[in-house]
Amino acid sequence: MSNSSNNRRVVVTGMGWITPLGHDVDSVWQRLMKSESGMGPITRFDARTFPTTFAAQVKDYDMARFVRDASVHTSAGLNSQFALGAASQAWRQSGLDGYAGLNRKRVGLYLGAGEGVLDFDNYAASNLAGWDAEAKKVDGPRWAEFAHKAMDRMREVEQEPNMPLAHLAREFGVRGPALNCLTACAASTQAIGEAFSLIKRGDADVMISGGTHTMIHVLGVTGFNRLTALSTSKGDPTKASRPFDATRDGFVMGEGSGMIVIESLEHALARGAKPLAEIAGYGSSADAFRITDIHPEGRGGAASMHQALAQAGIDPLARRADGRAAIDYISAHGTGTKENDSIETRGVKRVFGPNAKDIPMSSIKSMMGHLIAAAGAVEFMTCVLAIRDGMLPPTINYQTPDPDLDLDYVPNTARPAKVDICLSNSFGFGGQNDTLVVRRFA
Amino acid sequence: MSRRRVVITGLGPVTAHGVGIDPLWRALCDGRSALAPIRAFDASGFRAASGGELPGSFDVKELVPKSYRKATKVMARDIEIAVGAALMAVKDAGLATRGTDPDNPPTIPPDRFGCHIGAGLIAAELDELTAALATSRGANGAFDPAHWGQQGMQELTPLWLLKYLPNMLACHVTIIHDCQGPSNTITCNEASSGLSLAESQRVIERGAADACLSGGADSKMNPMAYLRQELAGRFAPCGTTDDATAVVRPFDASASGTLLGEGGGILVLEAEESARARGARIHAVLSGTGASQSWCDDTVGLVPDATGESLADAIHAALRDASVSAAEIDAIIPFGSGVPALDALERAALARVFGDALATKPFVTLAPSIGATIAGFGAIAVAVACRAITEQRLPARMNARETGGLLAGAAPSAPHALRHVLVCTPSLGGQNSAVVVSKPA
Predict the structure, then answer these.
(1) Which domains does chain B have, with CATH numbers?
(2) Looking at the predicted structure, is the pLDDT value of residue A4 above 50?
(3) Which of A77, B65, B182, B382 has the highest CB neighbour number within 10 Å of its CB?
């Protein structure tokens, strides 16, 4: 809006998540501190013969425990269900729930929600019913006849990636700017960054932001298996996600949602809310390199880190008065693929120079798996918790150092540290890179 | 500190009338419709068997650099449209990029060049996927996941998934034109393009880029994507022998639904000082944008918000952002689909904003000519607004007769003084977008 100058401070006042390790912020954080893994066999569908048979699934989740009135969300697909649980926690923590002064037209939504789960059984049955083996094509009218009977209106509409927005808007009655972005694995980091930018610009006072996604379904696992992006490790699934380890062989799928409530500092202070942390910077770039490969020098990731640090007023090459490096912790994208972890390490060194070795950087994907579009939001939240508790989450399954990867990956056990400023990276398949810088509120 | 102004210097719509603004503008002024029986698949089993497909002459291979032709194999139709649209926009803006002029330095430094492209939910090509699924039929003829996991999935090309990720529109466009600045993919159904243009505006304003390729693209000419629109209640009845060019009647009392159009548009948005410094032709100013979320009684928005309150909020926000009053708006390009409940929503919202003066505001309706273009709509509409401002002319309107007092009924193209044009749309899901496009000073 024209009456602002893009310089409002933005703070986090609520957080919530639904993850493979549990359904509330503190118990999941404690499990991360204890190096626990959320991996297990895939039970959502019969994956026993797939190249990858395991994932980190959300377990025993009941949306009705979180929402006011589950009857208005009966159509909710998994993404919307996860989003409702996570956002309800964040909304409650923010204290906006009972705040009489709230102008709901000044509360917006910016999510990085994935596409919904395909109604695979009915889809496959329709396709096979319509298949003309001779012509090697689907017969249109035959397909249409079968599909019209098999497909359900609500299951189809829930696959639209903007449906979690619709459910959250309904749940909290919010009417401000509402957007969903889908930049693969970078989506929810980007959503938070853009939500932050909307508040700074004055387009909203409060934003609910984050991500929600599951790709633990037949064509999701198929797609990533064909790309050979997933770990196909045999044996104990809890050992499969090995970011930065020399034997890493791909990522492990997770699922779930991370949601935060952010608001302008003046809005938070005027209602007596207690900021959990301040978002200090956001950067976004595109690799513009190749469809499947990351730029080998980590050019795009370095660019997004540089932008976020610059906005936060941080010189990555400088040290603070007490001798500490410019920041205290990096929540890595750290997928556990050969390419990502090498190039991310290179990109961090490119940005922080000789100080990179003094900045701990870990990947909670070792424990939670990769929540795809929702990964960035959950990882951002762990940065806020690291600041709160002075504890860094570990990279588990780090056993065999990779000679080329020589940073401090917080191997295997959580560690106490003085934490005031963190950086969280997310890099999407397709080349979108996003970085957030979050600092202790003071 | 005054805000950086954002101008539009390149237009790249791709619609059923062809590639670029010229064929679209001519057809709109002539009052011609491209809606016709669908060729991509046999649509006779659907309520609507016609729509607005790109002309058969559209070939993405002719719209990418030679060195990039191989990559067209992993492009869904939506990606092809975005890639073609981006090329037209870049050429129209007179930009040298890696894609158009690799031997010269780029006009916009790559790290100052952003890209925001709205996208739909992309459906897999049915023949390709089903050919693979059919290898994994069990004894009872049904899909057998055990066989699929072991063998069947090998039938799919390794890059199969990458054809269908919505961010691959921007991925290909950023690679071709070397846009290394901020890039995003907005997926809010009909509001996607407008919200993408607004994001580019904010990115340029805050100095994170000097120019952006911005817009959206969508094709639902695929049985699964098409069925979703039918289930959402969007289609007018239109059999294989009906005259599709007369079916879509936005805001008409007897409107019976819409027909889909595939298409999209990419625009070059640029900081005004950057455009002026290089002597660019400025089509129009992107003077303001607004967004909001509707309250949906059914939660998901299959039943549109009849009050129009939130779409009106988005329009008010865009007018404030543009420092333009409602009275100063000279024409309106609504989504105007001919779906009665959506038309009613737009009518209610516009009545809230313009009051009695709404009866004096001419509408531009695109759907009778090119179909409802969903995620591609906003950028196509803004491209049309730009050309209308340049020509100081309104295109023709088609089909509608009884419009209840709106200037939305059939009329030939005519000269018209245009300083500010409003483009707005609601969406399935409840997100609303509004954009004000203004004549350059």
Answers:
(1) 6-124+162-438 (3.40.47.10)
(2) no
(3) B182
Q: How far apart are CA A297 and CA A300, in angstroms?
A: 8
CA–CA separation, B97 vs B90, rounded Å? 8
Asked whether A232 and A253 are in contact (CB, 8 A), the reply is no
Residues of chain A in contact with residue B4, where contact means CB-CB under 8 angstroms, are none
Enter the ipTM. Answer: 0.98
Tell me the HSE value of B187 on the side-chain side, using a 13 A CA sphere.
Answer: 31
Query: Residues 72-111, chain A: which have Cβ within 8 Å of B?
Result: 72-73, 75, 105, 108-109
Verify whether the Cβ–Cβ distance B180 to A288 is below 8 Å.
Answer: yes
CA distance B22 to B330: 22
Per-residue pLDDT of B401-414, as tens digits, reads 999 999 999 999 99
User: Distance, in angstroms, between A234 CA and closest chain B CA?
Assistant: 15
For residues A338-353, one letter each, b for 16 or more C-beta atoms within 10 angstroms of the residue's C-beta and e for the rest, the string is eebbbbbbbbbbbbbe
pLDDT exceeds cutoff 60 at B1: no
User: Which are the contacts of B120, defined by CB distance < 8 A and separation ≥ 6?
Assistant: B78, B166, B187, B189, B192, B218, B219, B220, B225, B374, B375
Interface of A with B in 159-198 (CB under 8 A): 159-163, 165-167, 169-170, 173-184, 190, 194, 197-198
Q: Which tens digit of pLDDT belongs to each residue from B81-124?
A: 999 999 999 999 999 999 999 999 999 999 999 999 999 999 99
- Determine contact, residues B148/B136, Cβ cutoff 8 Å: yes
pLDDT at A1 over 60: no
Is residue B361 within 8 A of residue B419, CB to CB? The reply is: no
Strands (E) located in B140-258? 183-184, 211-218
Q: Domain-by-domain residue ranges, chain A?
A: 12-118+154-270, 120-153, 281-439
| Residues B231, A108: C-beta atoms closer than 8 Å | no
pLDDT at B176: 98
Q: Does domain A281-439 have CATH number 3.40.47.10?
A: yes
Could you check whether A12-118+154-270 and A281-439 share the same CATH topology? yes
> Looking at beta carbons, which residues of chain A come within 8 Å of B223?
138, 140, 143-144, 147
B222 min Cα distance to partner chain A (Å): 10
From chain B, pick out residues whose CB is under 8 angstroms from the CB of A81. Answer: none
Percent residues over pLDDT 70 in chain B: 100
Alpha-carbon distances, residue B343 vs A290, B94, B252, B310 (angstroms): 42, 38, 9, 15
Q: Which CATH architecture has domain A12-118+154-270?
A: 3-Layer(aba) Sandwich (3.40)
CB contact under 8 A, A226 and B232: no
CB contact under 8 A, A131 and B165: no
What residues of A are annotated to the active site? 185, 333, 370
